[in-house]
Design brief:
The chain has a single domain, classed as 2,3-Dihydroxybiphenyl 1,2-Dioxygenase, domain 1. Helix content is 16%, strand content 34%. It is built from 5 helices and 16 strands. It is globular, with a radius of gyration of 19 Å. GO terms for molecular function: dioxygenase activity. It holds the Pfam family Glyoxalase. This is Glyoxalase family protein.
């Protein structure tokens, strides 16, 4: 096998409220809203993308906010934890910031690293870990200096119903290297600077149920369209059912479900989020694919407005 993904391209999750979603990921975590669009399959629902200053692959978390969506349950067959990397020496800053804004967290150890473990406003599990590798973010918001800002994904923790099969897919289909085991997890590494550390929990949990506060899928990086087609042929040759290529405007995507129950996507790095907006004004306007533009007025009427804003400090 010669194909090797560089790691995570993006992670996509369900939440209930767009304003609370923006308040947490921009207001608390300091990420940039790099794209405000709609679910291409359900235009009555936003699709929001948060990342570093340009939405570099490996920094992007995306959400489908639906006020009428059911509450999900995190468990096997899904991504259990989304890990963010912060610069070395930054966890103290983040502990103080989380305390300032009344965000509960615990400190946990896993395979020789210290993590701040917390949940977003919908219950999605998030953690922060210090990492030396990966360039600093150039985006500063809400009082977070760039020297402490989230750089991108540190990785993710996968809750598989069949950890051995998921390990086989990571290593023999996606090209990850198995690098460590301990504390009830097996660790894998890819070559990219972001999102390159994946842990699989070795003891399966009860099945999860999709809904707000859970991850829908995790996407892996393909460098371009030609490589993605190679990936499609290779993944299919490994016995998985793979979808045709789907145009997501900011990347192209193929999907398959691995045997541990987790939905995997392989997404192209180009064209990126400046495909239809000025890089200095990403995320400021509702962007629609061409086929929805004739329906813009109706779509905008159905979407509750929200804003990216600084969060007020909780009173003592």
């Amino acid at each position: 096998m010669t194909l090797q993904t560089a790691g995570i391209h993006h992670i996509t999750a369900f939440v209930q409220d767009a304003q609370r979603n923006a308040d947490f990921y921009a207001g608390i975590l300091g990420l940039r809203l790099v794209k405000k669009t709609v679910n291409f399959d359900a235009p009555e629902v936003y699709h929001l993308y948060f990342g570093n200053e340009s939405g570099t692959p490996g920094t992007i978390i995306t959400f489908f906010p639906s006020p009428i969506g059911r509450k999900g349950r995190i468990g096997s067959g899904m991504v259990g934890v989304t890990t963010y990397a912060v610069p070395a020496g930054s966890l103290g800053f983040w502990e103080e910031r989380l305390n300032t804004y009344g965000i509960s967290y615990t400190t946990v150890q896993r395979i020789g690293e210290t993590y701040l473990s917390l949940a977003d406003y919908d219950g999605l599990r998030v953690e922060l870990v210090e990492r030396e590798e990966g360039p600093l973010s150039a985006w500063s918001f809400g009082g977070i200096p760039v020297e402490h800002a989230i750089k991108g994904f540190g990785g993710a923790v996968l809750y598989s119903i069949n950890p051995a099969s998921t390990e086989d897919t990571l290593v023999h289909t996606l090209g990850f290297e198995r690098v460590a085991e301990g504390d009830g997890y097996v660790r894998f590494r890819a070559e990219g600077p972001y999102g390159n550390i994946i842990d699989i929990k070795t003891d399966p949990l009860p099945f999860g149920a999709g809904g707000s506060g859970t991850v829908h899928h995790i996407a892996w990086r393909a460098k371009d369209d030609a490589e993605q087609l190679e990936w499609r042929d290779f993944v299919q040759s490994r016995g998985f059912h793979v979808t045709p290529v789907q145009d997501r405007n900011y990347f192209n995507a193929i999907y398959f479900r691995e045997e541990g129950g987790i939905l995997f996507e392989i997404a192209t790095d180009p064209p990126g989020f400046a495909n239809d907006e000025d890089p200095d004004h990403l995320g400021e306007k509702l962007m629609l694919p061409a086929w929805y533009e004739p329906h813009r007025a109706e779509i905008e009427r159905n979407l509750a407005p929200f804003q990216v804003r600084e969060i007020e400090v909780k009173a003592e």
